[in-house]
Amino acid sequence: MTDLNRITELYQEFPGKFRSVILSTVSADASPQASYAPFIIDDDKSIYIYISGLSAHTANLKQTGRASVLFIEDEADTKEIFARRRLTYECAAAALPRDTPQWQTLIDRFEQQFGQVIGLMKGLSDFQLFQLKPQAGQFVIGFGAAYRVNVNDLNSLEPRRQS
To answer: Does the pLDDT value for residue 160 go beyond 90?
Structure first.
């Protein structure tokens, strides 16, 4: 197995280590907002979040249709704080309409993953389901070890060359 194959396996497994994702959005007037949200992910790397319409990040997603997400190794687990393993995606964001087969399938997955709280939240009309579809990404595993996510195949990586 080549190093790139091994690193690609690490990349594919990495999001599975997390229950929530760090979310970065920006408002229509360019004010940045950092937050987080519990998530589920599909085989195509689309990330789904179920969030309150009362939060700033929801308004930002609706206004701009864009987000950046970050999965990052826990500080307690890293050997070098300056080189924490991390995965970032630049995403197109879209709200998914309620009462559709896709919404129901995804909300069922949320309930399986996160339990009874979803059963309570799905009755709250302000909560909305968003799809964050990666458009670009980067996986960093240490100093000088950064890889671009292949935009034509989000399940594969390519070495990042310094420019």
So the answer is: no
Residues present in the chain in total: 163
Look up residue 30 and give its two tokens: 């360019």
First to last CA, the chain: 28
pTM for this one?
Answer: 0.93
Which residues make beta-bridge pairs with 48?
A: 40, 131
CATH, range 3-155:
2.30.110.10
Q: How far is 133 from 149, CA to CA, in rounded Å?
A: 13
SS3 category, 107:
helix
**Two tokens, residue 72:** 């990052």
Whether the pLDDT of residue 162 is over 60: the answer is no
Is the confidence at residue 161, as pLDDT, over 80? no
Phi, psi of 151 (to 5 degrees): -65, -20
Closest CA to 84 of 139, 39, 34: 139
User: How confident is the model over 71-87, as pLDDT tens digits?
Assistant: 999 999 998 999 999 99
Give how far Cα 112 sits from Cα of 44, 86, 93, 149, Å. Answer: 20, 26, 23, 29
